[in-house]
Amino acid sequence: MSVVLVGCALNKKKGSAEVEDSSVNLQADATSSGLSSDDSGSAQVLVTSDNTLDLDDPLGTRVIYFEFDSNALTPEAQRIVEAHAEYLAGNPGMAVVLEGHADERGTREYNLALGERRANAVADLFQVMGVMPDAVRSISYGEERPVAMEHDESAWSLNRRVEILY
Q: What percent of the chain stands above pLDDT 70?
């Protein structure tokens, strides 16, 4: 899935962006939120009736972060996962890959298992909320694909994550 935004500038309202280029493939629909897909399977970002993107929409967040050595979802992470689960449950043709990651601390084997537990925590909540199990695939990369290369807490906190890929 790919989402491309062209000609997007921040609006003065917090949490929104004004769309300046009408040629961007965006669907304006004030009655729905989140993402939709066209026949080609590519995703479209929905625009509100006043031509702004809702950046505070939890469907816009595709990375779930975790505390050190934990696979428990924070309340904010749970809100984001539930929004994605509702979207998936309402769109039975969609599928998702959950990539579990860990920071560099711990052994390679431990971090692979921790990444798997994190991805499975998200997958379990998806299933509880009505997403069909065959629409969800979990994979763990452990510490092998860091997004931050430094060796401090600020980098480690970015690497403890699950990425939701449509």
A: 67
